[in-house]
Amino acid sequence: MKNVELEKEETSEKSYSKWQWFLFVVLIPLLFAITLTLVIMTVAGVNVFDAAKKYGEKIPGISQFIPDEQKASEQALKDSLIEQKATVEEKTLQIKQLKQELENKQKEIDSLKKEIERLNAEMETKQQSTEAEREQEQKQTIKDIVKMYESMSAKSAAQIIPELSDNDAVTILSSLNSEKAADILEKMDTKNAAKYTALLTKRVESIQGQ
Known about the structure:
The protein is an all-alpha fold. The protein has seven helices and no strands. Helix 3 (69-151) crosses helix 5, helix 4 (154-160) crosses helix 6 and helix 5 crosses helix 7 (190-209). The longest helix is centred in the middle third of the chain and has 83 residues, at 69-151.
């Protein structure tokens, strides 16, 4: 029984001695060397973490545990560029659509202008035609009135004409033949005869002046 206990104690002492040997001979010097190296690199201005990442990427099995910040940054930049490009293309498409709408509106405006010009020309033509028709009707009316006064006796005409406006009276008298007009003026009183004679003379002078 005592032999077994002694063997256990000896085994435990051997294990403890090996652990002490590893601690003092390997681990502590290694940690000291690593610490000293980090201090020297820091003082020398070397980025310890970047260096560790750089060399760690070359070691199989370790590089996969080191985050690739550069790749992530490049990917983020690419994604941003793609998004910006899509935005630019969308804005360009919107500008093209607005430009096309503006061109269509301009075409509509030009078409409306032409339609307005056509309607104005048509209206002017109709107005001229109406004026010509009205003038023709007036001439026909004057002819009918003149015929009526020509068939009327000079005495009756001399009594009616002074009741008309000066313009109408002169128009009728100037449209009658000179013999009929002279007979009518002769049957008027001196005052009216003189007035219409003067107006007829003025009318003739105005026509000759044109």
